[in-house]
Amino acid sequence: MKRVLPVLGLVIGILCTSGVAFADGTWLPDNFSTLGKEIDHLWQMIFWMVTIVFFLTEGALIYFVVRFRERPGQKAAYIRESNALEVVWSVIPALVLVFLALYQWNTWAEAKLRPPESADTVKVQILAQQFEWNVRYAGPDGAFATDDDLTMKNQLYIPEGKPILIQIRALDVIHSFFLPNFRVKQDAVPGTTVQVWFDANKTGKYEIACSEICGLGHYRMRALLHVYTNDEFESWLQEKYDAGATPADWGWDWEEGV
Ligand SMILES: [Cu+2]
Description:
It is a single chain. It contains five helices and ten strands. By secondary structure, the protein is an alpha+beta fold. A five-stranded mixed sheet has the order 3-2-1-5-8, with no helix packed on it. The longest helix is centred in the first third of the chain and has 34 residues, at 34-67.
């Protein structure tokens, strides 16, 4: 026992320290989206709830293991079930889950159910395939799948401060569109179009990662998100328009999905 306690203490100490670091957001990637703040808040709140429950239950476990360990001359007691106890430890977690479901509802709705509808929304289509991201912008006509479209690979350009609406599909297998700095993660699924939306409040270059093991080349399915100021984005888009359309040659029809 004397040898075990220091080790236990050390393990618990490390867990506590890393817990605080986690909850503090130290180990999270920087967040640059409006909704990301709310998502981080939920994450931290749930983290603390889980941490407290973890220490309470593990503490109780360690206490009982030590307190009721085998000792000479002591017989094991036979204890029948306790209905009251069963009710208590079922009802409390149920109440906590109901609270979380209600508390997070608005954030969930903002992230998943209410796509931006304002006129300045920037729309992009992304077709994920092994092992790259095909990005498509509507041309000057504002419509997708026409001859004036712009397409590119593994590069996504967006303006700062405007709502960005991305339609995602997959050509072959399930991929996952992941923007760690904007708290966006969405599976790209063959046969269906899924929308994600976010905004960026800081210019710069950020990672787009595939967070679904999608084949041998999964590790290199990485792209860049460029967040420009509004003016930079407008002139970038104009430059692309001037350079000429690059309609998709994916050999695949977005609308038909074949
Ligand atoms: Cu992938």
